[in-house]
Design brief:
Helix content is about 55%, strand content about 10%.
Length: about 500
């Protein structure tokens, strides 16, 4: 019986009772006030979620999910580790003979957009299991006991759905579990969070391997540091699977997956695109492929070319082009600023400039995009100093041409200071090996200033011989608004290009 039918029966019965009492001659005014009071209480409780049925997204194995591990690229290690755990569900009799206890919980950790939810859906397909998904925010309410009740209902619903569909396996997926499973004791005035987590711990302890329905809990978070230690111990979340940002080969595989249904031109090299998208997650790469298709459609092209993909990279990183147009003096300063970045980048890292433009995007009036040589996870002192030089080059180029700086370099300076701080905290400054928390603030400031001053002098020394070429590139940018890395090198470093 649905809640709507119950409401209708209750309303009809109430009206009938009131009619009977009026017929008998009773004064029903006090009764009406009492009924109105309870109606208001019910309405408030329902609107706040106390009387609310929890909705779960149910996807059943091979029938509705439509997502398999073949649809996920760039996560071979995570998929291999996840499949090993899922094989305990698929080959239950074999692992039972070995005395192996199936895992109760799997925790997927990693940055947003890396495919944690997709992997959970693929797990349901792989095991032919009932899949019930929800998020941590569904369990938290201001009323005591509501969250714990929903936890119980989640596990009960999963088992009931598996029985109805004749399945032996069920997978419960909780996204953003840090909302539900945060460390206890953080909320002194409200214990509802702790009660909800306690109920989840009890439910996980109650998972039995010999049940008619074998249930596996998969959770995802990008803040594993916030989770309660009791939730993380073996026997609850038995295994943590790291779903990290994809490497270069992984990015190429993800782009290939997302362009399977798109008409891609022969000039598109996925490895080139993968090299220029360092730091992109799977969600970013899906958006990249979609935006490239939109650019091709907007221009009436039948195929997506490399140019469309490069435009899409800029769109994903910086945002859409803006209609605002700086005045001529500002535009010239922006052009000089970005050319300065490009000159130093090319001098210190030959072949690194990918695009140079003065078209406003997002919060930037212009930008110079670099092409990473390869994915880098560790940085030497020389590499960090090179990046600082590139950051400072825009403002120092303005100073060289206009004898003044502008506020356009504020973001560059923030990044340069952060890199200088990283040099000091990594023990590569004159301070030696330090604990940043124990270094006086003024001492750290002096060291950071010293690092930046040294690199400023270096950049000025490099820029002075290229003053005339900076102005030449500035004039070209003012006319064309955009310059590719190849054209920039031909203009500024023609000798090196001929030598190549």
């Amino acid at each position: 019986m649905t809640r709507k039918i119950i409401k209708e029966i209750g309303l009809g019965s109430g009206i009938a009772v009131l009619g009977f009492l009026i017929w008998k001659g009773y004064d029903i005014v006090p009764l009406i006030f009492i009924m109105a009071f309870f109606a208001v209480i019910y309405f408030l409780a329902e609107s706040k979620g106390l009387i609310k049925s929890m909705s779960f997204q149910e996807v059943t194995g091979n029938t509705n999910s439509g997502v398999g591990f073949d649809d996920i690229g760039g996560q071979e290690t995570a998929i291999r580790e996840l499949k090993e755990a899922l094989d305990f569900l698929r080959n239950y009799e074999k692992i039972k003979g070995m005395g192996i206890r199936p895992l109760k919980g799997l925790l997927l950790t990693g940055p947003p957009g890396t495919g944690k939810t997709l992997m959970a859906k693929a797990a349901a397909t792989y095991t032919d299991a009932v899949f019930v998904a929800t998020s941590g925010s569904e369990f938290v309410e201001m009323y005591a006991g509501v969250g714990a009740q929903r936890v119980r209902k989640l596990f009960k619903t999963s088992r009931e759905n598996a029985v109805k569909q004749g399945k032996n396996n069920a997978i419960v997926f909780i996204d953003e579990i840090e909302v539900l499973g945060g460390k206890r004791g953080q909320y002194s005035g409200h214990m509802e969070y702790d009660q909800t987590l306690n109920q989840l711990l009890v439910e996980m302890d109650g998972l039995k391997t010999d049940d008619s329905v074998r249930l596996l809990l998969i959770a995802a978070t990008n803040r594993a540091d916030m989770l309660d230690p009791a939730l993380m111990r073996p026997g609850r979340f038995d295994r943590q699977v790291k779903v990290d940002l994809p490497c270069k080969d992984g990015r190429a595989e993800i782009i290939r997956i997302h362009t399977r249904n798109k008409p891609v031109a022969p000039d598109v090299d996925l490895k080139v695109i993968a090299r220029e998208t360092f730091g992109f997650s799977g969600a970013h790469l899906e958006s990249l492929a979609n935006e490239a298709a939109i650019y091709a459609f907007r221009e009436g092209e039948a195929e997506i070319t490399l140019r469309h993909f490069k435009e899409a990279i800029d769109k994903v990183i910086m945002g859409e082009k803006l209609d605002k147009r700086p005045n001529p003096d500002e535009l010239k300063r922006v052009s000089v600023h970005e050319t300065g970045h490009a000159v130093i980048s090319e001098l210190l890292k030959p072949g690194s400039v990918s695009t140079l433009t003065i078209s406003p995007r997002g919060n930037a009036l212009g930008y110079m995009r670099q092409t990473p040589e390869d994915d880098t996870y560790l940085y030497t002192l020389e590499q960090l100093e090179t990046q600082i030089c590139i950051m400072l080059a825009g403002a120092l180029s303005e100073e060289l041409i206009f004898s003044s700086r502008s506020t356009g370099a504020a973001n560059d300076f923030e990044k340069a200071v952060e890199l200088a701080r990283k040099i000091a905290s990594a023990g590569m400054s004159t301070l030696g090996v330090i604990s940043e928390d124990n270094v006086p603030r003024n001492k750290m400031h002096d060291v950071i200033t010293e690092i930046l001053k040294k690199q400023e002098e270096r950049v000025i020394r490099y820029l002075k011989p290229y003053k005339e070429r900076i102005m030449e590139v500035t004039d070209i940018l003012l006319e064309q608004e955009r310059l590719s890395g190849e054209d920039f090198r031909k203009r500024v470093f023609p000798e090196e290009v001929k030598a190549v």
